[in-house]
Amino acid sequence: MKRIDKIEKYLKEMKWTIDELRDRQGLSTDEIARNLHLVRTNVSKELNELVRRNKVIKIKKRPVLYIHRDMIEKLLKDKISEEIIEVDDIKQLIKEEKEQKIEMSPFDCLIGSETSLKNQIEQAKAAILYPPNGLHSLIIGQTGVGKTLFANIMFEYGKKIKRFDDNAPFVAFNCADYYNNPQLLISQIFGHVKGAFTGADTDKDGLVEKANGGILFLDEIHRLPPEGQEMIFYFMDTGTYNKLGETERKRKANVLIIGATNEDINSHLLKTFMRRIPIIINIPSFEDRPCSDKVEMVRYLLSKEARRVNKKISITEDVVKALIGSVTYGNIGQLKSNIQLICARGFLNFMDKESIDIDFKMLPSSIKEGLLNFRNKRKDIEEISDLVNGKLIVTPHDDRILISLNQDLSEPPFNLYKIIEDKISILKSEGMDEQSIKEFIATDIKIHLKGFYKKFEDTKNKKEKLLSVVDENILDFASEIKKFAENKLKRKYSDRFIYALGLHLSALFKRIKNNMVIQSFDVKDFLKYKQEEIETAFEIKSLIEKKYNIIVPDAEVEYITILLVNIEEEKDAHVGIIVAAHGDSTASSMVNVATSLLGDLMGEKKVEAVDMPLNISPNEILKTIIEKVKKINSGKGVLLLVDMGSLCNFDTVITEQTGIKVKILDMVSTPTLIEAIRKSYAYDLDLDSIYESLKDFRGYATEVKNNNSNKEKAIITICSSGQGTAIKLKELVNDIVTNITDEKINIIPVGIKNMKNDLSEIKDKYNIIASIGMKDPNLPVPFISLERLIEDDGEELLRKIVSNHSIKIVKKDQDIAVRNLCMDSLNQFLTFLNPEKIINLLIRFCNRLEIELNKQFSNTMKIKLIIHTGCALERIIINDSIKYKDSVLNLNKDIIEKVRNCSKIFSDALNINLIDDEIYLIAEMLCEQQY
Known about the structure:
This protein is of the alpha/beta class. The protein has 42 helices and 24 strands. The strands form seven sheets. A five-stranded parallel beta sheet has the order 6-9-12-5-13. It has a four-stranded mixed beta sheet with strand order 1-3-2-4. α14 (291-309) crosses α16, α24 (531-548) packs across α25 and α28 (618-632) packs across α29 (650-658). The model is unreliable at 96-102, 399-418, 449-462, 519-523 and 701-707 (pLDDT under 50).
C-alpha cells in the first residue's frame, strides 16, 4: 500500500462520536506520523495532497489538525460542500453548532484572540468592566504591534457592553507632539485659562473635558513631563482637575485613561504614576506571535489589498515565509508595507488578468532574504507549510474582517491621491506635526513612484514589457510628452516618466469611459515653489485633451505635477558640497586643491565653488548660491562651506526658496573641505551626520590632539536587543575584522531600546570608528546596514573604514560573511555531512560557477547557492532527493552543462554525484538570477 493510501485509510477509519469530534477536532501531523511509524515531513506532504484532492479537511488550529471528509459526513449524516477544504474550527461543520447564534465581542475579530492575545484581551475586558468606572490601563509594546488598534477595540467593547454610551467620545492624543514644551503639553490635556501664559488669549478646553464620559488615549505617554504625570495621577485619584492658570482643582470629568508606550516604563514613568495604573497590557511583538497568527496576519493584509484592486490574490508558500521572515523591528506595520509593495508589483504584472499570482521570483531582494531568517527554525517552516498548504489564496470578498476604524474598502486601485490621504490620516493619528508630515509625504511620493515603475526598467526589453499593459499609441504619446517637458523645464527625465505617464493615461481613459470620477486632493503644500512644473502640467493637460478629444479632470494636473517633480533622471544620491568664499578665486582654488587630491574617490561627482568679489551685493551672492544648490542637489541635501559667519543665515532662506535641505559651516579650510568630500563620497553619510562631525573640526593637526587618539577603537553592532542577534552580529563582524587586521578593534553589541544611554557611555571609553546593524544611530562615523554588510561590497567597505584609521591591513581570506552565515545554516540543516569538512568544497564550487558563467554572484546568491547545494549533497546520501517538476526545456542548456561540469568537484572529493534533478534545481536558481 502506498504511503498516501495508508494515511487516508487511517484517517477514514477513525471511530469517533460527535462529542469526541468536538473535543479532539482532528489529528495532528505528529500524531499520525507517530502512530503509523512514518517520517513527519513525508506525512505532512501527503496530508496536503489529500487536502488538495478534497479527501481530507484541514482544521487551522495550532498544531494544524486533519480529519477525513467521509468520516465527518458519515457521523453528521450530512454532505459537506466540496468548496470547504479548511476551517478554523470543526464546530463550523457541525449542524447544530452552525445554527447557534453567538454574540461576538469586538475582541473576537482580533487575530490572536484565542492565542497570543488571549491574556491581554482578558486584562482589557477586566479594565473596562471593573465597577464603577473601569480601571486606567497602560498598553506597552514595540512600534507597529497595534497598540492604538487595541485601545480602539477596548472602546468598541465598552460600547458593546453599554459601559459607554453609543455617542461617547474616544479622544486620542500623541504626547510626543509637544514633548519639548511641557507647558503647552499640559495645556493640551487639561486646557488653559486666558492669560495662563504668553499667547493664551482666550480660555481653551482640554482633552480631558472633551473625553468626558469616554476614553482618553495618550500615546507615547512616556513623553509626559513629571509635572504632567503628577496632574494625570491626581486626576485619576480624584476625578478632579484644573486648567493651566487656575489654582483650585474644582473641575470634574469621568474619563477612563489608556496610555501607550514603546519604552521601558521603569525608566520613563514616575513610580507614583505607575502605582495608579493597575492594568498593564503587554502586546507581543510580531516575532513572539505563533506561526498561526503570523499566517493569519498575512492572509488579512492580503485580503485588504484584494479588496483594493478587486482581484483574487494568491501567493506561494515561499512568499509567505519570506514575508514573515522579512519582518524585523517594524512588526505588523512593516509586514503591511511589504505586502503592499509586492501587491503593487503583482498588480502591474497582472493588470489585464482576473487574479494576481505572486511567486518567489517576483519578490524584491530585501523581502526574498526574509526566507534566510528561517534557516534555524525548522519547526516554524513545517508549521507554516501545514498552515499554507502550498498556496495562500484570498479573494476581494473574504469575510475575515478585522476591526479597523474609518476604513474605506471602496477605494479605487492605486489611486495616488487616496494613498496620500490615507497616509496623512495615519500620520496625524500618530501625532506627527504638519511639517514632518509634508516632508514624509514628499519623500514617500518619490519612493512610491520610483518603486512602482522600476519593474519595467529591470526588463531587457522595456517597451515590449510595457506594451503588454499599455497601448502603443499611448506609449508613443507619453514619449512625446517627456520630450515636451524636458524642453519646457530644461532638464532630463528618466524613462520611468514614460512608464508612469503611460500607465496613468491608460487608467485615466478607462475611468473616463466608465464615468468614474477621481476627487482632487489638495497637494499644493507638497508642491510649494514648483510653479514651473504646475504650469507645464496644465499645458500637458491641454495636449492630452487635444490629442484624445476628451475633458481631463483638474485632479490630473496635480498627478502630472508630482511626476514632473519626482521623476527626474536618476542621480547618484549623495550630499552636495558648495564652497563660498570672499575674493576673486578663493573658493575655486580651495576646490581645485581638494578635487586634485581626491579625484579617484570622487569619480564624476563635483564640488561647486562660489567666488565672491567684494563688490558683489549679498542678494547677487544669494541668487548664485541658490542656483548652485539646485544644480548640485541629488536628493540628500547640500552642505555649504563658507568663510565668514555673515553667510550662516542663508540656510533658512535657501531651503525656503528651493525646498532643499541646507546646512552651513563657517571658517572653511582646505582640510575641512577634504573631510566633507570624504564623508559624503566615501562614507555616504547623511547631511546631519557630516555637519555634526565637522562643526568642531579645525584641521588635522587639531584632530591628532583629540582625546580619541588615546582610546581603544571600537565598532558598534546594533540589533533589537543587546543580546541574541546582536551577539551573533558581533561574532560575524569580529570574524571580518580579524580577517582584515591583526590590530585590536573592540566589537560592542548594543540594543536599540537603550541605545542612546549605552552609546553615551561607550563614547566616553572608546573611539568609535563605525556602526553596523539594523538602525543608524546617527553617529558622526560611517554606518553599514546589516543588508549591506552581507552584500557584495560590505566587507570591502568595512576594510576601507578600518584602513582610514591608520590601522595596518593584512590580506587574508575573503568572504568571511558568506562563510559564517553558511556555516550557521549548514550546522542546522545537515546531519550526516560535516559542515566544517565540506564548506571549502562548496565555496570552491560556487567560485568555479562564477568563472564558468563569467559572472560575479552577490553574497546573497552565494549564500543561497552554497546552502542549497550542501542540502542537495545530504539528500543524495540519504536517498531523499527532490524531483524537478517543471519542464527542463525552460532552462538554459548551457547553464545546465556548466553546473554539471562544476559539480564534478564533489565526485572527485566525496565520491558523491549530483543527480540530474538536483542539477536542474541549481540551474533554475541561476536562470532566475539571469546568470
